[in-house]
Amino acid sequence: MNLKWKQNAITVAGGNEQGNELNQLASPIGIFIDDEKTIYIADYVNHRIVGWKFNSENGHVIVGENDQLRFPVDVVFDKQNNSLIICDRENQRVIRWFHQNQIKQQQILISDIDCYCLAIDRNGFIYVSDVSNNEVRLWKEGDDNGRIVAGGNGNGYDLNQLNTPTFIFIDEDFSLYISDSQNHRVMKWKKDAKEGIVVAGGNGNGNSLKQLSGPSGVIVDHLGQIYVADSENDRVMRWCEGNEEGEIVVGGNGKGSESDQLDRPADLSFDAEENLYVADHMNGRVQKFLIDI
């Protein structure tokens, strides 16, 4: 049975116009929800990572004071190491941030990379999309260069190529899903594959149910269904692998700031109850769409 969500969202972070107060966000991009439903947000224009606890009216700045970050794009929580991993975009690096027992410690994991988004697999390996080199690399602790696991064959439209890969997702089988944003498609690269397969979009830039426009956030549920933030169409789509077209899950009611609208949705996440969270980029908020039982 396909899950459905209520079409009117609840704003759970930001939503008080764009700004840098603790109850505001400025063009949020990457989000991560932990087991306690704390939302970690890459608050892009504010150069900070914000933690927003469940049912709180304000967030709290975790990283980003004293010019520590420049336009952070993505954040994931690493359970194994009880730390945050952050794509610090304009500083061209990926860092690990420990914040516990009043101790704040930063560790640079990867330098000199045009990183956009991150994923971490069950072994603790880190995947990073590199938009300049049109590739995704896998990094193990202590690696100098990582290794290419998708793309890396120049900018293009062939199945072994990518064009501005942004958001990524890694499943339990170590298959990698990539929002190939300027090719307006989502690619799936199986472990050790030399090329990917198109699992969403790939029919040019457009707004039909066969098309995507600048896809961003991508997540996959336990049934293998693919959810895509179809950013420039202001909607979230669901695609089943092998299907020619997707379906609109939320949004798709025009660009706007009403509770059933989105404006350039960026990242997506589920919580344990399968409620759907959307980083509503241009509205400066995170929206929670409740599961419709």
TrEMBL record:
NHL repeats lie at residues 255-292. InterPro entries: 6-blade_b-propeller_TolB-like, NHL_repeat. Keywords: Glycoprotein, Repeat, Signal. The keyword Glycoprotein applies. CDD domains: NHL (cd05819). GO terms for cellular component: extracellular region. Pfam families: NHL. It comes from the Eukaryota. SUPFAM superfamilies: NHL repeat (SSF101898). This is NHL repeat containing protein. The lineage of its organism: Eukaryota, Metazoa, Spiralia, Gnathifera, Rotifera.
